UniProtKB/TrEMBL annotation:
It comes from Zingiber officinale. Residues 44-240 form the PNPLA domain. Its EC number is 3.1.1.-. CDD domains: Pat17_PNPLA8_PNPLA9_like (cd07199). One of its GO terms (molecular function) is hydrolase activity. Gene3D superfamilies: Cytosolic phospholipase A2 catalytic domain. Pfam families: Patatin. It is an enzyme of class 3 (hydrolase). Keywords: Hydrolase, Lipid degradation, Lipid metabolism. This is Patatin. InterPro entries: Acyl_Trfase/lysoPLipase, PNPLA_dom. The nitrogen atoms of the two glycine residues in the GGXR motif define the oxyanion hole, and stabilize the oxyanion that forms during the nucleophilic attack by the catalytic serine during substrate cleavage.
Length: 319
């Protein structure tokens, strides 16, 4: 997909967000950036698409959102992390969430959406120039980034989950326990055994055929991770459950009516020959769609301003 096309698509995504969700009168009663000003918890969820275009489209849309946030608030340094209270991302979506919500040396988010987009575009072009495959299993985030000195390590350095500026959730599948594993800032704050280096978390959620062997900061918890998209391509339900059960950080969230959720889906796909990889992709997409359906049903018919699911093919749904 040409980037000019991605730019057009991201503009349409952003326009939808602006007009239907983020800057409606019901959610902007105060010029304050914090969603606490309107009394509802804002949740951002980014699907784990397996191609570069998936995460680039999400990053481009959030870049536009961030620019308008600055305009509306008069805060020239406002970031996406100032608008949302919790972020969840799977696969490449988890990498983007980590980039936007990890704390930098100045205490502010490590990346603006614009900076994250530029870096991801540059890395995608560099890898294409070197002949790396970008077709599946984490796309532009495959095995080379898991090596010491690779992309993730350069981006996040020594940061850990505790260094997130807001609650963040990133899934993987743990081969050691044969169960999904959800990396969480809340768990990391409570116990060293659940705090992991952020660059390893990103490698874990993007892992393809080779598991990422990792240990917690205290060495007590071992995870043999493969990609988050295998079990949780759409992490929206996990994010909602986390908010409703995390009374320490969200004591006033008692039900779905207390949430504002935006879920960014992956890009449309071209038909490919049926094989093991394609069947896995179909299963992953099916799980993502089922999560969307379940969440929409949970919110019910009278909550058009509480949940927005955006698919990049513009089969847009508002619930």
């Amino acid at each position: 997909m040409a980037f000019i096309d991605a730019d057009k698509l991201s503009y349409e995504i952003f326009s939808f967000l602006e007009s239907k969700f983020l800057f409606t009168p019901s959610t902007t009663a105060s010029p304050a950036i914090s969603s606490g000003a309107v009394g509802r918890i804002r949740v951002l969820s980014i699907d784990g698409g397996d191609r570069p275009s998936d995460v680039l489209l999400a990053a481009a849309a959030l870049d536009r959102l961030e620019a308008t946030l600055r305009l509306h608030t008069g805060e020239p340094c406002a970031r996406v992390a100032d608008l949302f209270d919790v972020a969840a991302g799977s696969g490449a979506g988890g990498v983007l969430a980590a980039m936007l919500f990890t704390r930098g040396h100045d205490g502010r988010p490590l990346f603006s959406a614009a900076d994250a987009l530029r870096l991801l575009v540059a890395e995608s072009r560099r890898r294409r120039g070197r002949g790396f495959a970008c077709s599946r299993g984490g796309g532009l985030f495959r095995g080379v980034f898991r090596r010491p000195g690779g992309f993730f390590r350069r981006v996040f350095g020594d940061a850990t989950l505790r260094d997130a500026v807001k609650p963040i959730l990133i899934p993987c599948y743990d081969l050691a326990t044969a169960a999904p594993f959800l990396f969480s800032r809340a768990d990391a704050v409570e116990a060293d055994g659940y705090d992991f280096r952020t660059w390893e978390v990103c490698a874990a959620t993007c892992a393809d055929t080779t598991a990422v062997e990792m240990r917690s900061m205290d060495g007590r918890t071992r995870v043999a991770a493969v990609g988050g998209g295998v079990v949780m391509a759409n992490p929206t339900a996990a994010a909602i459950t986390h908010v409703l059960h995390n009374k320490q950080e969200f004591p006033l969230a008692t039900g779905l009516e207390d949430l504002l959720v935006v879920s960014l889906g992956a890009a449309p796909r071209e038909p490919v020959p049926t094989g093991a990889a394609e069947l896995l992709r179909i299963a992953s997409d099916g799980v993502a769609d089922m999560v969307d359906q379940a969440v929409a049903m949970a919110f019910g018919h009278g909550s058009a301003n509480n949940y927005t699911r955006i698919q990049v093919n513009f089969a847009l749904s508002i619930y």
